[in-house]
Amino acid sequence: MRYLYTLLMYLATPLIVLRLLTRGMRYGNYHQRWPERFGIFKAPDLRGSIWVHAVSVGEVNAAEPLIKALRQDYPNAPLVVTTVTPTGSARVQQLFGDSVFHVYLPYDLPFSVHRFLKQVRPRLALIVETEIWPNLYFGCYRRGIPLMIVNARLSGRSLRGYAPMRALLRSALRCVRQIAAQSRSDAARYRLLGADPAVVTVSGNLKFDMPVPDGARETGEAFRQQWGRLRPVWIAASTHEGEELAVLEAHLEVLKRLPDALLLIAPRHPERFRLVEHSVRSLGFSMAMRSADHLPGESHQVFLIDTMGELMSFFAAADVAFVGGSLVPIGGHNVLEPAALSRPVLVGPHTFNFEEITLALVRGGGAKRVLESEALGGEVLELLQDGARCKQMGKQARVVFDSERGAVRRVMHLIDHMLQE
């Protein structure tokens, strides 16, 4: 199965190169770094490094407290952080600067994996959430590099999708020394996929240990002073195609009752900023943009957040948060960021990527599920008009957030034990 998989990967290489060229046109200097995807890069002496792989922005944010703990407990070990996406790379640079060595993860081709591991020379490999690459895993196993999946997450949908490759993935998972799952359900699914039950444990979700960035609350308060302290404000974060129109229609409903209300909208992917801008203007809203106007004024109805890495400050500046990827079958995004700032959370019906976290918030009274897009405006309006309920939901969200903390400590205990071995 692995030989067949590798052959298919080689056959797909021309398409991979074409995709790299296309991404290079979209993301500025990305084309200058495409050799990294084949294990070709210059690196300092990384002997004995600890390597953390986080595919994109969400995983980098989840790994932030763990990476900081590794820097504190193992100050002499070089830290290597890999990502797959340019936005993930930018987030690594924003959070850690030159204190870690960043490079793109190579494609799962044997020669690319060999070059990468020869350069990085890790003493420990940590894969965040759900990234199973058979040749990479076998490469670590052959070199005696202990491999651990941290914050391991596997939805029922992903498990079903892996069915045709289950034999291959089972053999890959047998190369893993430890799987620290987010929940009991995730742990059970990893065992069903073929992981050795003896290496699977439940450590909790690293995202609950996510620190609120320094100054986020103060920055949010300053934003509100700029656009009107008493204005009702809601945010639609990490939205996808098919959601922005529903969000804008919901805001039209809100404006009928609260004409001074402000919507902050933050699309998930930067390449969609222009499309969302066009949609906002075509519906006749008075709008401002983060890149062009810095902040909205009192007369603006919609503010497009077309920058990256500032979402926490805007969550702090809002009264209500809707988290996208949930009105369409994407699976939802991180509901913990607004919860950490004591903001009530609204989500759509599709939250399978964060199902247990979302359920915990809903059951704890800190979040509410909107079953259809047409109901979003009414739910937002109800919260914005009921300040006491809005604050109570926000407090409950923070209670749930605080009650689940401690995953970093548990994962670090596993890491310490593995490195001592």
Automatic annotation (TrEMBL):
EC number assigned by the record: 2.4.99.12
- Residue ranges of every copy of the 3-deoxy-D-manno-octulosonic-acid transferase N-terminal domain listed in the record: 32-210
Which pathway is this protein assigned to?
Bacterial outer membrane biogenesis; LPS core biosynthesis
Localization recorded for this chain is: Cell membrane
Q: Name one GO molecular function term.
A: transferase activity
The UniProt record lists the keyword Cell membrane: yes
- Cite the SUPFAM superfamilies for this sequence: UDP-Glycosyltransferase/glycogen phosphorylase
Membrane-spanning intervals of the chain:
none
> The organism sits in which domain of life?
Bacteria
Reactions catalysed? lipid IVA (E. coli) + CMP-3-deoxy-beta-D-manno-octulosonate = alpha-Kdo-(2->6)-lipid IVA (E. coli) + CMP + H(+)
Give the record's keywords alphabetically: Cell membrane, Lipopolysaccharide biosynthesis, Membrane, Transferase
Enzyme class, one word?
transferase
Job description of the protein = Involved in lipopolysaccharide (LPS) biosynthesis. Catalyzes the transfer of 3-deoxy-D-manno-octulosonate (Kdo) residue(s) from CMP-Kdo to lipid IV(A), the tetraacyldisaccharide-1,4'-bisphosphate precursor of lipid A.
Alphabetized NCBIfam families for the sequence: PRK05749.1-4 (NF004388)
The entry sums up its family as follows: Belongs to the glycosyltransferase group 1 family.
Tell me the protein's name: 3-deoxy-D-manno-octulosonic acid transferase
From what organism does this protein derive? Dyella flagellata
